[in-house]
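@channel anyone free to eyeball this complex?
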Amino acid sequence: MDSNKVVPAWAGALAGVVAGAVALGVAYVVAAVLAPDSFPVVAVADAVVDLSPAPLKDWAIRTFGESDKTVLVGGVSVVLTAVAAVIGVLSRRSVRLGQAGLALFAVVGLLAVLTRPDAGALDGLSTVVGALAGSWALTLLLGRAVTPAGEARTDVLAGEGSPARPGPEEPAEAGRPAVMRAGAQLYAFDRRRLMVGVAGGLAVAGASGLAGQVLSGRRVGDTARAEIALPRPATPAAPLPRGADLRLDGLSPFVTPNKDFYRVDTAIVVPQVDPKDWTLRIHGLVDRPVELTFDDLLRRPLTEADITLTCVSNEVGGPYVGNARWLGVRMADVLRQAGLRADADMLLSTSADGFTCGTPVDVVMDGRDALFAFAMNGEALPVEHGFPVRQVVPGLYGYVSATKWVVDIKVTRFDTDKAYWTPRGWAEKGPIKTQSRIDLPKQGQTVQAGRTTVAGVAWAQHTGIEAVEVRIDGGAWQRARLAQVPGPDTWRQWALDWDAPAGEHTIEVRATDAAGRTQTGQQAPIAPDGATGWHSVSVRVV
Ligand SMILES: Nc1nc2c(c(=O)[nH]1)N[C@H]1C(S)=C(S)[C@@H](COP(=O)(O)O)O[C@H]1N2
Ligand SMILES: [Mo]
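replying in thread with the prediction:
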């Protein structure tokens, strides 16, 4: 039946959008039960992340920061809504056409879902069931959009009983809806019936969305996490020196609370890994492949260490750095058990969601506290920080070392394998560059004239910070006082008292590492291997 002329375009678009909402709501609840990242919107967003060129990704991280994922999912949703509206408008001509549009959509969703590295056999189900629900809703809604408007006058009918065939329409006039005919029947647009259908569709979409939300609220990671009793470490961390935290208002605390710890990853939906099912497989260039369960890991001699993690995407003065006390097993112990071959120079670690890091073997084996960590600041790893197990390697940026939800280590060579970020324009190896940051005063702050404190943090992981200097308005460098540190693997707080005169002032900072190397003032962008330059803030003193 051709409802093209009788159903206005806006009503078609509305039907399309509501049908789309039903499709997504149903897909969401099915995905919540089966596998949360099989939700097609998430899978498509994931595919966008993986396929988009590095500069675009960097721009997104810079522009949207930690809300980049929200923005992306929002963007995908806007596109989906627009396409659903178009499908609805087309469906007025033929419901088949609309169904074909939906099917095409489902194929795109399915492709995104099934090409995920961790895709399971059932993962396509949410997309398929969602598309069927959407198609059903669309047919129902368009059926409701028209209503019989009495018998057609027989004298204009070409032939009784002939298949439904569009006839000439009677144009809409004020107060009288357009009608059309199918066989002997005249049809008119029925706004009221459509709206009742729309309300019903929205109710279905809302209810299934809500159900999906409730179901995905209690995920296996969260429940399993609460049940873990942390064993005592064989090698505890040295007690924190008294003066490790200067406790200044506005200065980053020495230990970053888990809830404030920065998060950077490619996962749109946080992988939910049950420690009961978790294993870590170590294979490749080894004498004896090893497979560990979570219990195996907990039974080994444990090491606890304070380590500051840094992201290569951290701009000078940026927030993607945090310090925590980690508990885990030394990677070197496990690798020695496997027996590394002499030609191996890279550990290609893979996460439960298919992300990979390439970590230099020599760094992990040189005696530093490179860990398979399962606890952070005295609690089991938060799910978004890699529960049940992640890597932490002092001195290397996260993208080459800190694999969260780690499940597999292939011992290999840099000339054989490429990790996730390497073909995307980032350096193969990522040692952390020495940096320092001014936490207070803040950029643009108005400060009272007189004695005030300038303070911040500096880091040069696994070498340590030996000095921090500050200068005002390009003047002489002045030594800041340094807080104590437990070792070379954490950041170090610093502070300087400043007798601030009225006016506009610029404060700059630079650090020198324990090997005597002073941080360069030369500015470099974050790609390919980390930003350089001195952090500066401008303040107004009154
Ligand atoms: N599975 C997985 N692990 C990952 C990443 C990722 O995208 N996926 N990102 C890495 C990067 S770039 C950084 S900086 C750190 C950040 O760890 P955090 O989120 O716990 O702070 O995790 C690393 N581990
Ligand atoms: Mo990172």
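from a first look: Confidence is low (pLDDT under 50) at residues 152-177.
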